[in-house]
TrEMBL record:
Matches recorded under PANTHER family: CYTOKININ RIBOSIDE 5'-MONOPHOSPHATE PHOSPHORIBOHYDROLASE, PYRIMIDINE_PURINE NUCLEOTIDE 5'-MONOPHOSPHATE NUCLEOSIDASE
Entry protein name: Pyrimidine/purine nucleotide 5'-monophosphate nucleosidase
InterPro entries for this protein: LOG_fam (IPR031100), LOG_family_nucleotidases (IPR052341), PpnN (IPR049788), PpnN-like_sf (IPR037153), PpnN_C (IPR021826), PpnN_N (IPR027820)
Name of the gene: ygdH_1
UniProt keyword DNA-binding present: no
EC number from the UniProt entry: 3.2.2.10, 3.2.2.4
NCBIfam families assigned to the protein according to its UniProt record, in alphabetical order: Nsidase_PpnN
Species of provenance: Klebsiella pneumoniae
Domain Pyrimidine/purine nucleotide 5'-monophosphate nucleosidase N-terminal: 4-109
Domain Pyrimidine/purine nucleotide 5'-monophosphate nucleosidase C-terminal: 333-402
Amino acid sequence: MITHVSPLGSMDMLSQLEVDMLKRTASSDLYQLFRNCSLAVLNSGSLTDNSKELLSRFENFEINVLRRERGVKLELINPPEDAFVDGRIIRSLQANLFAVLRDILFVYGQIHNTVRFPNLDLESSVHITNLVFSILRNARALHVGEAPNMIVCWGGHSINENEYLYARRVGTQLGLRELNICTGCGPGAMEAPMKGAAVGHAQQRYKDSRFIGMTEPSIIAAEPPNPLVNELIIMPDIEKRLEAFVRIAHGIIIFPGGVGTAEELLYLLGILMHPDNKAQVLPLILTGPKESADYFRVLDEFITHTLGESARRHYRIIIDDPAEVARQMKKAMPLVKESRRETDDAYSFNWSIRISPDLQMPFDPTHENMANLKLSPDQPVEVLAADLRRAFSGLSRGTSKRWASRPLSSTVLTNCTAIRR
């Protein structure tokens, strides 16, 4: 099967020079990454978390960028049949396919364009933040003048049925209050709030539903986007993805999860506990069904044992009460709006929140780098949080990329158990 797909979304109008740049990038070393991410999008909604299985099932799939006078088309060779209905590609997949083209090929080409990004320094905190902003703006994710209503939801992709249904009920309550959702775009706790919010929005006849899926290349192939995502954004790496979450968020909810969820919480606490962020208004709620109470108790104890009691003032734990979670988020939105107005900051992108370079620099979780992490209480809490986040990042990536995670686990846990403040 060979089919041609026209652009839908932010890639629907390109200059001929931009098209030429895209074609050059598509034939570069990035092709395999572009191909694998496109395949993941075409498998949106599949329950697999095994990228090898997905890639082997469609090993004959190919994708080509074709030039035309009005821009580009994509040529799909042997694509998954489930991506089509009566021979026509599903529209959400069509839009997300061009999001992959935009974020993998177009953004990469723009980053290496010395005219558009002169003297770009990816070790400069300011440059990194501006790059994150440029990627989000290019994706049309920053809506000027729109009142705060974007709730970021974090949690595990392999949660149990009770946790999934609870996250869905929370999503429904958020949707009834006309709040939008941003998640990591995969299954589990990333899908459930979107599914619930879609019902809540429908009940309220809310027409501006936004379900943003924020991912990065090493994740999307292992966790294809869920079918609810209507704005897919692929950030260059884990750290820029986390920064994009925080800067686009007006509130954050954390559901039960694994080491990746712990990484996200530690990243956020490393930001909120920084002295420069004392005045920031960013509500954070940890929540789950009553069966997850022990999970949050252990997580809370770990945070207080490592980062101290002061960390607790930055989050609230609500067990088995979806309506209260949504009420607290809705009640916080005017406070977020007022805070942004007082600092003359944008509603759509939080420029004023301080993210230290330790949290922005990509971390390569080799065994040597993991063993060299400074997991000592004799340092500022925001610095310790950054290193703890790196530790859990190593575990998370070791699991998602199918690396040998057992040696990494023992290295981290041996160090973590010795931390006391």
